[in-house]
């Protein structure tokens, strides 16, 4: 049942608003407050789906109420009620975050449409928040080992900055998770997170993929196309396996980092971009530099912050937590009951040589859940977890 608060010092208008809303939809639960101070106290103690607030009021005016609501309940839409002389102020309140404004005396259709739209927006905001929380869990870093704790601490310190980050480590260790955590904990979290696997794109196409192209730039360029840097504007671009990028593309990435501008293939027009760059590689880039396969100037641009993700063999104490995490996730995905692992089974998994790291462990856990007994035993591990 939608809960609406009407904050209005003029009793007659307040009663009209409450009457209109209550009679229009008997599922609306409408409450009143005769001034801003009372309204704020109610908002602190209750969760409202919508607030209607007058602009000119004694004790605390509507602009002050709006500013307070945005601090204590930022997701709650607020519609301002304006007298004829308050229209300029009403327009300004929308710049401060108000959903809309309605004039006195309230037009019935305008009022009801605004209320319905504001309530629909609240539902979308809540759903979006839940979806982001769900997505965030998919990129959760599991582990309490010293190495993982250090990475988490570093992410907390670095995420709120725009510093470029280079994530290194063997295949399957979770470098992508680090990139997503950095994005989700940053002020860019509401912006796009664009991933580019540099190893999976042919060298002749990587520049078009990253920077876009204009029609006619090459044979198959039948129309203008934006690149990944443009798509990531306002957010984060994750350049995975950057050690496999061609020297030609490296030069253009370097320019993009230096000038915050890109050029589409076949164009001489600069496009300004505001992008945070996180890169990852399983290669030793210093050796690649010595071999002439990676630009040293690009390395120094990317490696403002270095995060090294350890191999699973270097954090075996996290294996019980990882096994538990994967069993819960697999049970949820398959709609089955969660299986348990015996202590001896866990111990045997901790003794394995995990050359494929977290990715390999996840596959083995799924295999044991499918093929093992009701409780995965040491014998199950010996039978089904072999290389």
From TrEMBL:
- Sequence positions bearing 4-aspartylphosphate: 54
Q: Which domain of life, per UniProt?
A: Bacteria
Q: Which residues form the Response regulatory domain?
A: 3-119
UniProt keyword Metal-binding, yes or no:
no
Q: Which PROSITE patterns match?
A: RESPONSE_REGULATORY, SIGMA54_INTERACT_2, SIGMA54_INTERACT_4
Parts of the chain that traverse the membrane: none
Q: Where is the Sigma-54 factor interaction domain?
A: 141-370
What's in the keyword line of the UniProt record? Answer: ATP-binding, Nucleotide-binding, Phosphoprotein
Q: Name one GO molecular function term.
A: ATP binding
InterPro entries hit by this protein: AAA+_ATPase, AAA_lid_NorR, CheY-like_superfamily, P-loop_NTPase, Sig_transdc_resp-reg_receiver, Sigma_54_int, Sigma_54_int_dom_ATP-bd_2
Quote the SUPFAM superfamilies the UniProt record gives. Answer: CheY-like, P-loop containing nucleoside triphosphate hydrolases
Q: Does the keyword Nucleotide-binding apply?
A: yes
Mind listing the GO biological process terms from this record?
Answer: phosphorelay signal transduction system; regulation of DNA-templated transcription
Q: Which PANTHER family match?
A: TRANSCRIPTIONAL REGULATOR (NTRC FAMILY), TRANSCRIPTIONAL REGULATORY PROTEIN
What is the protein name stated in its UniProt record?
A: Fis family transcriptional regulator
Q: What is the lineage of its organism?
A: Bacteria, Pseudomonadati, Bacteroidota, Flavobacteriia, Flavobacteriales
């Amino acid at each position: 049942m939608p809960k609406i608060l009407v904050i209005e010092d003029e009793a007659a208008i307040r009663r009209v608003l409450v009457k209109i809303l209550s009679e229009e939809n008997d599922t609306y639960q409408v409450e009143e407050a005769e001034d801003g101070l009372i309204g704020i106290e109610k908002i602190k103690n209750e969760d409202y789906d919508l607030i209607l607030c007058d602009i000119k009021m004694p004790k605390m005016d509507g602009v002050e109420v709006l500013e307070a609501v945005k601090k204590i309940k930022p997701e709650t839409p607020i519609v301002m009620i304006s007298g004829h002389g308050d229209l300029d102020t009403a327009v300004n309140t929308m710049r401060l975050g108000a959903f809309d404004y309605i004039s006195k005396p309230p037009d019935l259709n305008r009022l009801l449409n605004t209320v319905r739209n504001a309530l629909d927006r609240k539902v979308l905001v809540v759903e979006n928040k839940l979806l982001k929380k769900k997505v965030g869990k998919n990129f959760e870093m599991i582990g309490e080992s010293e190495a993982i704790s250090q990475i988490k601490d570093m992410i907390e310190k670095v995420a709120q900055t725009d510093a470029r980050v280079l994530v290194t480590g063997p295949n399957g260790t979770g470098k992508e998770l680090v990139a997503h955590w950095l994005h989700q904990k940053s002020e860019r979290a509401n912006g796009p997170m664009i991933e580019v696997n540099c190893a999976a794109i042919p060298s002749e196409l990587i520049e078009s993929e990253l920077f876009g192209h204009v029609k006619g730039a090459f044979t198959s360029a039948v129309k203008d196309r934006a690149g990944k840097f443009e798509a990531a504007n306002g957010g984060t671009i994750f350049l995975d396996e950057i050690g496999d990028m061609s020297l030609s593309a490296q030069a253009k990435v370097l320019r993009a980092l230096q000038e915050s501008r890109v050029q589409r293939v076949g164009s001489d027009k600069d496009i300004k971009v505001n992008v945070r760059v996180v890169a990852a590689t399983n290669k030793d880039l210093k050796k690649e530099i010595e071999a002439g396969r990676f630009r040293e100037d690009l390395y120094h641009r990317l490696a403002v912050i270095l995060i090294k993700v350890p191999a699973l063999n270097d954090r075996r104490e996290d294996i019980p937590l990882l096994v538990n995490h994967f069993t819960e996730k697999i049970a949820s995905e398959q709609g089955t009951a969660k299986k348990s692992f015996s202590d001896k089974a866990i111990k045997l998994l901790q003794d394995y040589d995990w050359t494929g790291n977290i990715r390999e462990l996840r596959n083995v856990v799924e295999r044991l859940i499918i093929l093992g007994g009701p409780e995965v035993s040491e014998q199950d591990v010996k039978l089904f977890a072999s290389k």
